[in-house]
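Changelog excerpt

This revision adds worked examples to the README so contributors can see how folded entries look when concatenated. The first example is reproduced verbatim below.
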Amino acid sequence: MATLGRALNSGGDRPGRQAAFGFIFISAVTSAMSIGIMVPILPNLLKQFTSGDTAVAVEWNVVFATCGGLMSFLAGPVLGLLADRWGRRPVLLICLSGLGLDFLFMAFAPSLAWLFVGRLISGATSGVFSTANAYVADVTTPENRAKAFGWMGAAFNVGFLAGPAIGGLLGQVNLRLPFTAAAALTLANAVYGALILPESLSPERRTPRFVMARANPIGSLKLLRSQEGLAGLAGIYFLNQLAQMVWPGVFVLYTGYRYGWTPGVVGMTMMAGSLMGISVQSFIVGPVIRRYGERGAMIAGICAATAAFIWYGVAPSGLAYWAGMPVSCLAALLLPGLQGLMSHRVSSDEQGQLQGANQSMAGLASVFGPSLFGFSFAWAVRNPSAHMPGLPMLGAALVMALCLLLALRLRLGKAGVV
């Protein structure tokens, strides 16, 4: 990990910066693992609270995800500006603590109302990965950022490699046990960060003051109009995030309803998908970016995601679904290329604002995505004669097709690399 840090590090201005990327990589892995532990179980916990009614569970999942996304949309600019003003480390610790608290709510909540409170807290502190990306931009050279963002994507997949499988197995013992494990892992990660993680943003590179006018979603979006092509790239980011909402929105309930998958099978499937994603991000992203550039990698990832969603929407069996996973994993090319293109277009003291604006875009996607995919799936469940259980997957494919159209039409001027 130290070798990786030296390869990607920007040189730094004090001892310890050499290992900074390694620290943040491990932090991202453990955070993703804790989230992965929770993913296969939460929809089934909702089903438990709704007497086993799949359609009603989907609708409650929509409500939770939408409200959490709205909180993330509102909090993203604040967290981004705080990270630019006070540094990445304190914001990361706040976000990890909020995530751990949410897991505790899920572990012990006696009712849906308590679960809802936990989701609001999680949404308000959902800046773990956006802050980590700002950290990466601090400690890597501009030419290595896309590669580094690819490693961060690999970190997410490494966490998801084990997390869903652990969650599925623990969930078969007790439905609340995975949340306890996720809370312990996340809070241990926060302690790890408090004791070991160095700050990446030196005082002289920080924003001189916290500007309240920019600490709101509308104000933060002004940054996205500050450089040529940045607004279009943000649109691609939003559409991709919108399509990805199909996974937390319906994946567990969809595969359980259509293919009869248990939490254990769901967890193992997610683990296999993560392993494929790690392979792409570790061995394919770098060569593709060197050969075709960041834009080429982004477009290739969009095409792969579009094709995969179509396949998943029409796959008649679990085996057919699995056959589409090698194509789906190539979608991991999208974000490293996109984030590299975006980070080149802002200055060093605006990287946190950029990631905060991206978090707001992701939060906005979380407001609309769960309704788009959740209600379409609930309709398909309530109208089995229509034979359209894959409707939400096909809807995600349509969103990615719009994303591809925008990417092909986008004009990118020369980036001001700083």
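The second example, added in the same revision:
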Amino acid sequence: MSKRNSLICCRLSFATLVLLLISRPAMTQESKSTTLELDHASICGSNLDTLRQAFTDVGMTPDFGGPHGNGITQMAIIGFDDASYIELIAPIKPGATAGSNWAKFMADDAVTCAWAVGTNVLLQEVDRLKKAGILVKAPERGSRKRPDGMSIEWMTSDVGSGTPGSTLPFIIEDQTPRDWRVQTSASVKGAPVAGIESVVLGVNNLDASIALFRKAYGWAAPLTETQKDFGKLAYFPGEPVILAAPSGGGWLSDRLGKFGESPVAYLLNTRDFAAATKKYKLSGTKTWFGQRVAWLDSGKLKGVRLGVIGQ
């Protein structure tokens, strides 16, 4: 090889090395970013029949899901086409909530109370969160017995402080096939709404909560805006969570005082906003982060804030 060719090779090798060194931080940063797969969102109440009737009254008839393995709670389910679902939780025996993580929420008729994300690598995600400096509990087994007698099993890990899924979502991994746990409910099959798009979390300090989510999942800085009815909002594009902090008094401040940081509203995605508005009699349309948001009748839903978001 000539000296000239040797020099060219050296320059190419050096240039390649520089590119690798420059790109390494970007690659490392990208690898730290975690995309959440929303599994389900929960609504607690004192009586399951009351919860089921409330949702039936707005056009989303829940399916009875059966008792949980803890012997304390039972559930009903509204399964959507995208396989996400709303879970309605209430005590098996009226008032007998001792031992449930969500006992304080079940004292009311209906309260948004928790959210969960799914995974197929639970232990790996637990380890990742621990390394990120996030409090996470060891996995625990859970189960439910369906009305047809079939037993469904899963593992969950609680993330962060507070009740499970109050701020950071708890993680769930199926031990039995997932379609045993959730199927599309007849009342919403092919409906204008196809699944849960976002969980709106009530938080006391927006900046602190933004920092917590970025630490846990490696996300970029969120978009922010203010909505009169909710206060200051922060949205991480592409992720299923919107943070909401009160900008004064009002219902959100009262809610935080009573229940602490927890989900305060759920937004369903839609195939056709106009059709969803007509079918579910949506009202109060506003624009959130460039998308339209409107709400089902919260009076019929016993105070639960359930909306639809879309173009």
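Reviewer comment on example two: Residues 65 and 81 are 17 Å apart (CA to CA). The helical segments are 3-32, 48-57, 122-131, 178-181, 206-217, 251-259, 273-280.
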